[in-house]
Design brief:
This protein is of the alpha/beta class. The protein has 18 helices and 26 strands. The strands form 5 sheets. It has an 8-stranded antiparallel beta sheet, with helices on one face. Helix 7 runs antiparallel to helix 14 and helix 15 packs across helix 18. Bound molecules: 6-O-phosphono-alpha-D-glucopyranose (G6P). Its EC number is 2.6.1.16.
């Protein structure tokens, strides 16, 4: 969702701002704008794409200081006027903002009562007026005074025509970083926007502000006392953030293909073959701590929630500790009981999903212990947790999660293994799983080789308006994730059901026009699974079955997709991979924008 960029330095700001904004496009947005500070403050903003903004920019737009924004509409529709930056009435101050002002209505009413004419429907506009009306004599003082009146969350960047050498930024609940260049500074809400220019970066903490000038930055608190936040080099390959690869393939496709390598990275240095366990230093817990937990509660949103369900069943199987997953977006609102002997696990690719972040904060407020399973290093969720497991999947740009999901699964396997081995999981079983995990990259590679066959099936499925995804026990979250992937990028209706529940309702819908994708691993439930699928077959429902080569489907009329078999507990991740390719090829067949599905954002930073 919403993205912030900023620049202060020796170059012209406008092209750098626009370039930065294009690097944030994957996050999801519906309007964009820039404010450039030269001899005067000039603001251009447009509903639509960054390229619409780029075309609307004045030919002569000189200025070496500027801020830019991609907006995801929350308060008011996606119009030119509601796009950021927002200015005060005199056009002296410009502000870009990620987050939500909770008391916007009251602040807007107060400004209107004072005779201010508000231009937009947004909550953000109040910042610009509050900064302009502050009596403080520095920009830092003005921003602090304005923020003192605001309740809510923000990542914020402000420019002011009377202070033309600087951008003042602030963070409270919405990420913000400063990229340090050679006599130039970059500002962004996401590393992706700056890595082409610099990989030396300072992340602001919540409650921190910074003054950014061409020569450097200083950080401070709301009482204007200095803080010591420093920039440091991030170990990242800038090319990993490119949208699409050289061959012009969609980013989702390259991310699917990267999975053997990203799974390998998640595993690197964490497996112990001798003792059949995993080492997760980031948890910062010893065997005694791990033994003390009597429950595991996993929280995430979207695909992270579905993989959380896969993780929960793995933890129950391997560690014999009750475990379940719940959407983080619901958890906080039911006044959850936080138990001291429950291990809470927050799972998130971006580490920014606000629902997950707020759940973490609620748990910690109530004294619970929470670890993160997070991809983005240093992200808000990673910082808010007591410890965690970084996924090392590399940047995930496509909205539909693929390599983050598979590495989350691997992260859960490592956690389940370690939790199991401090309890009753035998060393032999531990070694069996270590060995299974080591086989995963090559097996994913094998599945990727069957792409043509899957693409062929995908083309047939793409024509169906509606379909079911079914699976049992370990296969059920796989079905849920498969349905999610298809919905996200094909806009086809797909509903996941436990196979066992078919006869309790959905069977009524089965017809030759409604296909079913069934997950049928070789396990203790294979025969029951196959029996239930006969009921679909008998009603003319087309079947696609994702299964193992040794499974005998008898006389079922079905197209099958075989995946290699691993240890039963680890099979779900391999069963998931063909479903990614299925959704991807269906989307391509329908001629849709695979990487930027309508109405969806990569990082959902509002509730
Ligand atoms: C959004 C994305 C989903 C993702 C979910 C959680 O809804 O569109 O693909 O699964 O957020 O994101 P996270 O970054 O917390 O894993």
């Amino acid at each position: 969702m919403c993205g912030i960029v900023g620049y202060v330095g020796a170059q012209q700001a406008a092209p750098l701002l626009v370039e930065g904004l294009t690097r944030l496009e994957h996050r999801g947005y519906d309007s964009a704008g820039v404010a450039v500070l030269g001899s005067r403050l000039q603001v251009t903003k447009k509903a639509g794409r960054v390229r619409d903004l780029s075309e609307a920019l004045p030919k002569r737009l000189a200025g070496k200081v500027g801020i830019g924004h991609t907006r995801w509409a929350t308060h008011g529709p996606a119009t030119d006027t509601n796009a950021h930056p927002h200015t005060d009435t005199s056009g002296t101050v410009a502000v870009v903002h990620n987050g939500i002002v909770d008391n916007a209505a009251a602040l807007r009413a107060r400004l209107v009562a004072d005779g201010v004419e508000l231009a937009s429907d947004t909550d953000t506009e109040v910042f610009a007026h509050l900064v302009a009306r502050s009596g403080a004599d520095t920009l830092e003082g003005k921003v602090v005074e304005a923020l003192g009146q605001v309740e809510g969350t923000y990542g914020l960047a402000v420019v002011h025509a009377d202070f033309p050498d600087r951008v003042v930024v602030a963070r409270h609940g919405s990420p913000l970083l400063i990229g340090v260049g050679e006599k130039e500074m970059f500002i962004a809400s996401d590393l992706a926007a700056v890595v082409r220019h610099t990989t030396t970066v300072a992340h602001l903490d919540d409650g921190e502000l910074a003054t950014v000038t061409a020569g450097g930055f200083t950080t401070f608190r709301h009482d204007l006392t200095r803080t010591t936040t420093q920039a440091s080099a991030v170990d990242i390959d800038p090319s990993a953030f490119e949208h699409g690869d050289v061959s012009g393939e969609p980013r989702m496709y390259t991310e699917i293909l990267e999975q053997p390598a990203s799974v390998e990275r998640t595993l690197r240095g964490r497996l112990d073959e001798r003792f059949g366990t995993a080492h997760l230093g980031g948890l910062d817990m010893d065997a005694r701590d791990l033994r003390a937990f009597r429950r595991v509660k996993i929280l995430g949103c979207g695909s992270a929630y579905y993989v959380g369900q896969m993780g929960a069943s793995m933890i129950e199987e391997l560690a014999r500790v009750p475990a379940d997953a719940e959407p983080a977006s619901e958890f906080r609102y039911r006044n959850p009981i936080i138990e001291p002997d429950t291990l809470y696990v927050a799972v998130s690719q971006s580490g920014e999903t606000v629902d997950t972040l707020l759940a973490v904060e609620e748990i910690r407020r109530k004294g619970g212990r929470v670890i993160g399973l997070v991809n983005v290093v240093g992200s808000a969720i990673a910082r808010a947790c007591d410890g965690g497991i970084y996924l090392h999947a590399g940047p995930e740009i496509a909205v539909a999660s693929t390599k983050a999901l598979t590495t989350m699964f691997v992260g859960f396997s490592l956690l389940a293994l370690q939790l199991g081995r401090v309890r009753d999981l035998s060393v032999a079983d531990g070694r069996r799983l270590v060995n299974g995990l080591q086989r995963l990259p090559a097996q994913i590679e094998e599945i990727l080789k069957t792409e043509d066959h899957i693409a062929d099936i995908a083309r047939d499925l793409a024509d169906a308006e509606s379909m079911f995804f079914v699976g049992r026990v370990r296969g059920y979250p796989v079905a849920r994730e498969g349905a999610q992937k298809l919905k996200e990028i094909t806009y086809r209706h797909a509903e996941a059901y436990p196979t066992s529940e078919l006869k309790h309702g959905p069977l009524a819908l089965i017809s030759p026009k409604v296909p079913t994708v069934a997950i049928v691993p070789a396990d203790e439930l294979t025969d029951r699974n196959v029996a239930a699928l006969h009921e679909i077959d008998a009603r003319g429902g087309p079947l696609v079955i994702v299964t193992h080569p040794e499974v005998d489907l008898g006389d079922l009329h079905a197209r099958r997709i075989d995946v290699p078999r691993n240890e039963t507990e680890l099979d779900p991740v391999l069963l998931t991979v063909p479903l990614q390719l299925l959704a991807y090829h269906a989307s391509v067949h329908l001629g849709l924008d695979v990487d930027k599905p309508r109405n969806l954002a990569k990082s959902v930073t509002v509730e």
